[in-house]
Write a structure and sequence with these properties.
Layout: E1 6-12, H1 19-33, E2 37-43, H2 50-60, E3 64-69, H3 75-85, E4 90-93, H4 104-113, E5 118-126, H5 131-147, E6 160-163, H6 164-172, H7 180-187, E7 191-198, H8 212-223, H9 228-257, H10 264-298, E8 305-309
Parallel strand pairs: 1-2, 1-4, 2-3, 5-7
Antiparallel strand pairs: 3-8, 4-6, 5-6
Length: 315
């Protein structure tokens, strides 16, 4: 058997209606580049017929492969599993809902053959997304790139092509958060951006929480790739301490001058509430870092494969 040139990694959950159309469009695009490709569906156990649809497609094309997990591990870990099991000289991560246009794969492969190790499609337009998600995303990327140790290009999701050496370095990383955008930035290598207009979802509803999901991604970018939040907590402590000394100086001045100090209950309530809020924010920041340290230290498996189809090694 000839070695696999391209591995397409597709994390899926409750996507039975999108898989046939995805395969109908992606296979001709891949065949135009090479016949030696594999499509790896990384499946979180779904209540619908997603697994059956994949296996039915595999019955007529053995290049379609399946990884089914023992429970739902989430899209980031499904993606990492697909990369770990892939064998292609280049790997493409994309969604099955057609928002990652299959026709863009041709340009991505051309850029890889031109010498780029990472090809990043960048969204010019985010059709169909609510304004709140666009705002959270825009602000999040600005904050992350301002404070993070690495630069993460804005408006880029997990849709990307990576060479084999990039994939090999990624699977060596031991982080359990699975924030692919940041991990690829950490690995480095030669990268290029391809702009595109993101279409709407082909059918069905997204399994991704549009607001809290974006916040979770943003927090991973901030807390997993920077210690700036801890430094900010320290800075706030110094600022509050300075304000406290100034307040004490004002109090002493009023006392020496014999002036009446009109603080009152509202002032005390405001000051106590302000200090309490700052303390809770600082504790929350510490909690975010400690929680991630706890996740890393206990070293649980990133994923557990229940069974697989199309792979030489056992699940």
């Amino acid at each position: 058997m000839n070695p696999v040139l391209l591995s397409v990694i597709v994390p899926v959950f409750r996507e039975e209606k999108n898989i046939p159309e995805f395969l109908r469009q992606i296979r001709p695009v891949l065949s135009a580049s090479t016949e030696n490709y594999e499509i790896i569906f990384a499946l979180d156990p779904s209540p619908d017929r997603t697994e059956d649809v994949i296996l039915e497609a595999r019955a007529s094309d053995e290049r379609i492969k399946l990884l089914k997990f023992s429970r739902r591990f989430g899209q980031p870990m499904a993606t990492m599993a697909g990369m770990q099991y892939s064998t292609g000289e280049a790997a493409i991560v994309m969604d099955v809902d057609m928002q990652d246009p299959p026709e863009l794969v041709t340009d991505m492969v051309a850029q890889w053959r031109a010498g780029y190790d990472v090809v990043l499609p960048q969204r010019r337009q985010r059709t169909g997304e609510p304004w709140i998600k666009k705002v959270v995303s825009a602000v999040g990327y600005k904050v992350i790139n301002k404070i993070a140790d690495v630069q993460i290009p804005p408006n880029i999701g997990d849709f990307r092509l990576m060479s084999r050496r990039v994939v090999n370095e990624l699977v060596k990383l031991k982080e359990s958060h699975g924030f692919l955008r940041g991990m690829v930035a950490v690995v480095g290598f030669k990268q290029i951006i391809i702009p595109f207009d993101r279409p709407t979802r082909h059918t069905g509803e997204t399994n991704y929480n549009r607001f809290f999901g974006s916040l979770r991604i943003g927090f991973n970018g901030i807390f997993c790739f920077s210690t700036y939040a801890l430094q900010l907590s320290t800075i706030m402590g110094f600022i509050i301490a300075t304000l406290s000394f100034l307040l004490m100086a004002i109090y002493l001045l009023y006392k020496f001058m014999g002036w009446t100090i009109l603080w009152g209950n509202p002032t005390l309530v405001i000051i106590i509430s302000f200090l309490g809020g700052i303390q809770l924010i600082s504790v929350g920041i510490l909690g975010e870092y400690i929680g991630r340290i706890y996740e890393e230290v206990r070293s649980r498996p990133k994923f557990i494969v229940e069974h697989s189809a199309g792979f030489d090694r056992p699940a």
